Amino acid sequence: MAFDAADFRPAAPIVAPGAAPCPVWTAANPDRALAFLFVAPQDCDAVDVLTALEA
């Protein structure tokens, strides 16, 4: 079995609730927000902002 196929879940959330990146900050810093969400994935408004930005 490949290591990425295993289901590893932390016992406690990695990021505290309410610590999601602000949509305004995300729009101003899309590279940093993307890196933050890569390290600590979460469903928040920042994801919508990132997908709405034009390349």
Jot down its keywords.
55 residues; mainly alpha; 3 helices; elongated
Q: Could you spell the SSE succession in H and E letters?
A: HHH
Beta strands, count: 0
Average residue pLDDT = 78
- Low-pLDDT parts are none
What does the radius of gyration come to? 13 Å
Question: What structural category characterises the helix and strand content?
Answer: mainly alpha
Q: How many distinct helices?
A: 3
Range of helix content: 40-55%
Shape: elongated
Distance between the termini: 37 Å
- Provide the β-strand percentage band: under 5%
Describe this structure in words.
7% of the residues are buried. The chain has 55 residues and is mainly alpha-helical. It has a domain at 21-55. It has helices at 23-28, 30-39, 45-52.
